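Hey, I'm writing a tutorial for new members on how sequence and structure tokens pair up, and I'd like a real worked example in the thread rather than a made-up one. If someone can provide the structure for the chain below, I'll link this post from the tutorial.
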Amino acid sequence: QVQLVESGGGSVQAGGSLRLSCAASGGTFSSYVMGWFRQAPGKEREFVASITWNGGARYDEDSVKDRFTISRDNLKKMVYLQMNSLKPEDTAVYYCAAQFSRYGTRWTSGYGYWGQGTQVTVSS
């Protein structure tokens, strides 16, 4: 069983930066692919980024490419999402997710463990 706790959300003006963190406990962290998703009010939860055990990253190319960076520290059991050049449309609750797998996926159904989410609000 894996528990995930996100932190680092907040309010920022457009063009600003935030760094989200996700602390994992339980399980063998290095065996899990980790993902970040977000959900805006009235919208479905959507993929942001994922990272495999050895650092292989993928992003939602249309929305966050070249602005967001996902990383992980297997020793600390942490995964991060560095968000730069934030836009109002990035406003959402951001969720950390984990799945016992060597391969990343953009589908919510591919992750069995979820955190409680952290709110990110970007004002114009």
